[in-house]
C-alpha cells in the first residue's frame, strides 16, 4: 500500500474539517492515518448485499418512555 | 493501619452494628492521606461530603433503617461518571471546569443504596489516551509497585480498591478498561454484557462498545455491586430490558460439570502468553478440573479481526465525539489521545459500515462457541509493566485478550490468578454467555475461595 502523499492528506484533512490544523498535528494525522488505513484495508468488503451491520435502527428504543 | 475488609465483610459488620460507617470511612481516608499523594488514584476527593454521608448512614442504621449491603460503604467513580455538583474532568484539560448538573445512572443507584461517595478516580484522558503526563492530572500508579503501570483506563478505580482506599468502584470498558486495571492491580472487575448496566451520564469513549461495570477486591463484592447497578434504564438507548437475577445467590462455590473452553490458538500462536502467565493459567485450569470442571479447546476467529473491527468503529465514533475540540483547540488534548482519535475524521462511511458488518459475524461466531461451553477462560493480560509513556500507535498495532469480548458484548470478569516472583498480580479472565453474569461470577468466586490470593495486600498499605 503506497503512503498517502502530503497533497492527498491535505485534501483529506480539509474534507474532515481540519484544514486549519497546525503543522505538528498534521504530522500526527499523517502517522496515525497510515495505521488506520491499514486496518480499514483489512476489513472484508465482499459481503452479500443483505448483510446488516451490528447496530441497526431499533424502533423499540424510541417507543420507550424516558 | 486498620485491618482490610472486603465489601461483604464490612457490610455484614455494619448490618450488625459491629462497625460504624464513619469508622470505616475514616480507615479509608487514613489510607488516602498516607499514600495517595504517591499513588495518584483520586483526582477529586469529596472528604466532607463523604463524612456527611457516612454520618447519615450511621444514623439511619442505628434507627433501624438499614438499606442493604451498600449502606455506609465508601466507593469512588471513574472520573468519566458524571456527578451532580462534583467536577467530572475525564482527566482532560478540555473539561477542567466541567461540573455536571445531574448524576449518572450508576451514581443514582449507588446513592440510593446508601453508599458513601469518596471521590472521583483517575482515568486515561476520555478513557482512551494514556498513560499521559501532559493532561489535567498525573497518571495513577500501581499500588503493588509504584514504578509499575496500573493499566488503563480505569486506573484510579483499580489502584484505589487494591490499596484499600475504597471498597467499591465503577469503571468503564470499551476494549478492556475495567479488566486491564483489575488485572494489573490484582482485584476483581466485571465488564457486564453490553446493555446490562446503564451508561447514562458516563462520558462516551465509543458508543457501540462502551460498558460500565464494577471493580472490587473480591468476586463476591462485584456480585454485591452488580445487584445494585444492573438493570434497565430507558434513558440509555443501549440498555437491555432483561430480568436481573440475584447475583450473590449464584455464588454457590459449585463448578461440577462446568465446561470451560480455552482459545489456545490465541494464547499460543497469535499473542503468545509469557511463561509465567501460561503456567498460572494452566494451574488455574487444573484447579477447576480438581473442582469437577472439564476443560476443552475452542477455536474463535483471529484476535486481529476483532481488533480491526473494533478499532475502525471506535476511531470513527471517537472522532465524531471530539471533532469540534480537535478542530478548535487540538492542543488541549494530551498527545496520546489526540494521536489515537485524529485520523478518525478520515475514515470513510463505507469502512465504518463494513467494520460493523464484520462485528455482526464476529459476535455471532463468539455466541456459537459459547453454546458449546459454559465459559471461556484465558489470561486477562500480562503482569503490569513499568509506568512510562507508551508509543500511541501501539493502540493500532497490538492485539489484546480483552477487546474481542467488547465486540461480542459478552460478560467478562478479571480476577487475581496469583503473583509473579516479583510480587505483581497475575490475572484470569472468565467470559460467559450474553446476560449470564451469574455463571461468570459463580465460576470466578469458586476459584477465589479455593485459592489464597485474597489474603495478600500491597506492601504500600500493609
UniProtKB/TrEMBL annotation, chain A:
Bias (Basic and acidic residues): 44-54
InterPro entries associated with the record: RhoGAP_dom
Domain Rho-GAP per the UniProt entry, residue ranges: 1-66
Region annotated Disordered, chain positions: 44-66
UniProt superkingdom: Bacteria
Protein's name according to its UniProt entry: Rho-GAP domain-containing protein
Source species: Paracraurococcus ruber
From TrEMBL, chain B:
InterPro entries tied to this protein: Amidase, Amidase_dom, AS_sf
Pfam assignment, any one: Amidase
Domain of life: Bacteria
Gene3D superfamilies noted in UniProt: Amidase signature (AS) domain
Domain Amidase: 23-441
PANTHER family noted in UniProt: AMIDASE AMID-RELATED, TRANSAMIDASE
Protein name, entry field: Amidase domain-containing protein
Originating organism: Paracraurococcus ruber
